[in-house]
Amino acid sequence: MVEISEPLALATGSRLRDALESDILTGVIAPGERLDEVSLAHRFQVSRTPIREALLQLASAGLIEIRHRRGAVVRDLGPQQIVAMFEVMAGLEGLAARLAAQRHGPEEAAELLACHEGCLAALGSGDTDAYYYANERFHQIIYRASHNLFLNEQCLALSRRLRPYRRLQLRAGDRAKTSFAEHGAVVDAILRGDGEQADHALRNHVAIQGQRFTDFIKALGGLSERRYQPAAE
Amino acid sequence: MVEISEPLALATGSRLRDALESDILTGVIAPGERLDEVSLAHRFQVSRTPIREALLQLASAGLIEIRHRRGAVVRDLGPQQIVAMFEVMAGLEGLAARLAAQRHGPEEAAELLACHEGCLAALGSGDTDAYYYANERFHQIIYRASHNLFLNEQCLALSRRLRPYRRLQLRAGDRAKTSFAEHGAVVDAILRGDGEQADHALRNHVAIQGQRFTDFIKALGGLSERRYQPAAE
DNA sequence: TCCTTGGCTCTTGTATACAAGAATATTGAC
DNA sequence: GTCAATATTCTTGTATACAAGAGCCAAGGA
Predict the structure, then answer these.
(1) B163/chain A closest Cα distance in angstroms
(2) How far apart are CA A60 and CA B21, in angstroms?
């Protein structure tokens, strides 16, 4: 007999938050859109209470904004805010790489190399999605190899928040190929134990600079056009 | 006639959170201690609903831990977790300094210099509290001068969370004097526009390394002894 | 004496009820 | 016809009620 994974009650709390978070990150609920408590309660077949708790958590995560007695709206991040967040992401990942270079064990080195080869395979297959996921694993291995749990958590959280935009970047031209080459430099530095160089390499890999900046802003423009459509009805 | 600052209702929501946060950060509610909803509701003369919302926010901020159907407890950070958080703080502040070096305007330069002199005055007076506050301002000026709002917010949030431990460090021996000297190097690098050096200087200023690490662990031991006293009655 | 099992209590999670502030629509005056 | 003021409705914030899981205590057996 198959056991039910959770007491079902446990699901409720985080279920709502995860569902809403997903809807926001994927754009199902567009930036600027109002989050009405009763509608959501109706939609998820629960009362307003757990909905409110979910909204509060999303607000803490910075995904939505709750104004007193005025309800919640999905935060609309302007281009410069997104770039600012990538700047921080670059800093955090650089730090992770630096620490990973200093602290990684042999099994982590092997894992990193294996994942790097996996990236190569995905790149060769031409499957953008496959590369996306391999890329994600690559970065997460470095977070863990930093042996700093707090940093690991921070990186994961911010990375998740930036996920839609990372996806956007990967579409642009030969970004995947460039990305892989940059990964190579990161791997080299980490395995050599060169923290300074690892920091530098990963930071520049993540940062949105130069031509990538221009491309990114352009891609963002296309995204927001699509996004605003439903609101323009 | 003096106007009441808020419609009083607005206060309720954040009032509870701030009060609880303060109690936790100052140790009034000790790490590991249980946060009973009904007791808190009684204490603050409100119902459980707003208490729960406050607890949820504190959990999002990482100050407490809520386990499903098992209530909330104040998170007990072990020494290595605290050190890990300082490591991240150092990384973020280093990034802020790097960006500040590249982006600061003339009025920010002036502000930084003025604050640095204020630190000197506080140091001369021998008033540890005065130096503590001047020091805090100094760092916050750099956050702002990074011209990265997200980074600024992240720095402020983490800084607040680490406040009690920063205070602890400042007590140790001639830390204030060393601190001020390190500030000098940071100011120089930022004003010169040397991002690399500014990053390096501020990162090492914030990080807990070498002798400071030993001192810090020792100080932490004393703190937890005091903290656990009430629970040991 | 220690472990296990049963029931009891206590606390949390969710639903509902109610009050008060915001938004909106309507009506009146200019 | 437009603007303003007021009334109505709608939504949020808080309190309370109820259900169910978790922990605790006691009693019985090994």
Answers:
(1) 17
(2) 14
Instruction: Tell how far CA A32 is from the center of its chain.
Output: 20
Secondary structure (3-state) at B63: coil
Contact A76, A224 (CB under 8 A): no
Asked whether B217 and B87 are in contact (CB, 8 A), the reply is: no
The predicted model gives A31-54 an average pLDDT of: 97
Of the candidates B40, B74, B108, which is a domain's last residue?
B74
**Which bin fits B45, alpha (ψ -120 to 50), beta or left (φ > 0)?**
left
Q: Provide, in whole angstroms, the distance separating residue A15's CA from nucleotide D15's C1'.
A: 26
Domain count, chain A: 2
State the residue for tokens 């600079």. Answer: A209
The pair phi, psi for residue A149, each rounded to 5°, is -60, -40
Q: Which residues of B touch A56 (CB under 8 A)?
A: 53, 56-57, 60
**Tokens representing residue B63 in the block:** 């100050």
Q: What is the DSSP string of B11-35?
A: HHHHHHHHHHHHHHHTTSSPTT-EE
In a domain, B39, yes or no: yes
For A79-98, b/e burial (b = at least 16 CB within 10 A) is eeebbbbbbbbbbbbbbbbb
Contact B53, A52 (CB under 8 A): yes
**Residue A44 falls inside a structural domain:** yes
Domain that holds residue B93: 79-228
- For residue A111, the number of C-alpha atoms closer than 13 Å in the C-beta half-sphere is 15
d(CA A176, CA A171): 8
What pLDDT digit, counting tens, does each position of A178-202 carry? 999 999 999 999 999 999 999 999 9
Q: Any bridge partners for residue B64, and if so which? A: B74
Judged by C1' against the alpha carbon of A11, the nearest nucleotide is C13
Q: Is residue A198 within 8 Å of residue A100, measured between CB atoms?
A: yes
- B113 CB-side CA count, 13 A: 11
B102 and B63, same structural domain? no
Q: Which two tokens stand for residue A60?
A: 């803490």
* Other CB atoms within 10 A of residue B189 CB: 22
Q: What is the pLDDT of residues B177-211, one digit of tens each?
A: 999 999 999 999 999 999 999 999 999 999 998 88
Q: Is A131 exposed, middle or buried (0-12, 13-18, 19+ CB in 10 A)?
A: buried
Contact residues, chain A, for B196 at CB < 8 Å: none
